[in-house]
Amino acid sequence: MTTVLFFLLALLYSLATFVASSIPGSDISVPLWERWDLIAHAVEYGLLSYLVVGWVRRRWAGMVTTKMLIGTVAYCALIGGMNEIYQLYVPGRTCAWDDETANIVGAALVTFAVVKLSRGKRN
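User: That's the sequence. What structure does it adopt?
Assistant: Structure tokens below.
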């Protein structure tokens, strides 16, 4: 994918997280276990970090620094935190620190995995 495409996908996906957060809590069916949403949060923000890292790697021609990786996770944490605060105003939704923690963990794990796997391909 091109640099612009990764950037647009990351931006659209960031916006889509707010659309998903707009769904009232009563309209969300709950699977078999109570805290299934922590896995959903980790996957959701892991995908966001994949798109952001993809953009960063293409934008700076594969040169990825520690600051860029920290920035990727920080961006995902910021979007996740803003979503949690936004959910305070959505009926049936809540702002939860454990959800934000899952956002950060998912983003960090995928960011680390993408970088580790891409470095392994070069060796």
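The mean pLDDT is 88.
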